[in-house]
Amino acid sequence: MGFAALTIATATLCLGLYIGRDAEEMFMTGLSLLVAMVPEGLPAVVTITLALGAAAMVRQKALARRLQAVETLGAASVICTDKTGTLTENKMTATRVWTLDRIYQVTDTGYDPAGHIAHEGAVVGAREDAVLAELLAAGLTCTHASLLRKGDHWQMTGAPTEGALVTLG
C-alpha cells in the first residue's frame, strides 16, 4: 500500500512538472497526496488484527508473552527440537554431525564425554578426519560453556547447546 501511494504521488509530481506547473507547488501537492493516501485507521486495523491473531493462538493453546518471540518464530524456516531432556533437565546432547560429504553418529547422552563418533559403524577420531577435527575445534573455540567433573558425574556450566558442543569436542 505504501509503495502504491509513493508511486501515485511521484506520478502526480512528474505529470504536473511535465505540463508546466511550478516545481514547489507540485512537490507540495505530491507530498499532501502521499500523506492523504495513508489511512487514518491503519494503526487501529493493525492492532485489531494482531489481537484477533492472539485470540486465535489462545484457542489453539499457544500463548506468547512477547510479540517479538512470535515474530521471530514466524521468520524461522527451520525449527530444531528434541525431547531428550533439554527442557525438563536443561541438558542437550549432540547425536549426529553433518558435514558436506559425511554424516556421523554420536554415542552416549548427557555431558559425560565417554561416547564416540562413528561413520557408517566405524569409530572415527579427529586425528583421522581433518574436516571433523576442524568442526570440533570450532565448536570448542566458539563457546562460553565448560565441563567439570564432580565426583562420578560431569557438570556443565553455560548454555545447554554450547555444553553439547563442548561434550562433542
Q: Any descriptors?
A:
single chain; alpha+beta; two-stranded antiparallel sheet; 47% helix; elongated; 6 helices; 169 residues; 3 domains; 4-stranded antiparallel β-sheet
Poorly predicted parts:
none
β-sheet strand percentage = 5-15%
**SSE order, one letter for each helix or strand:** HHHHEEEEHEEH
Major β-sheet profile:
4 strands, antiparallel
Structural class, from helix and strand content?
A: alpha+beta
Q: Rg from C-alpha positions?
A: 29 Å
Mean pLDDT: 82
Report helical residue fraction. 40-55%
Q: Structurally, how many domains make up the residues? A: 3
Distance between the termini: 52 Å
The order of strands across the largest sheet is: 1-2-3-4
Number of strands: 6
Could you characterize the architecture of this molecule?
- The chain is α+β, with helices and mostly antiparallel strands and 169 residues long.
- It folds into 3 domains: 2-37; 45-75; 96-168, no CATH class.
- It is built from 6 helices and 6 strands, in the order ααααββββαββα.
- It has helices at residues 2-18, 23-37, 42-59, 67-75, 130-141, 160-168; strands spanning 96-98, 103-106, 117-119, 122-124, 146-150, 153-157.
- The strands form 2 sheets. A 4-stranded antiparallel sheet has the order 1-2-3-4, with no helix packed on it.
- A hairpin with a 2-residue loop joins β3 (117-119) and β4 (122-124).
- The longest helix has 18 residues, at 42-59.
- The two termini are 52 Å apart.
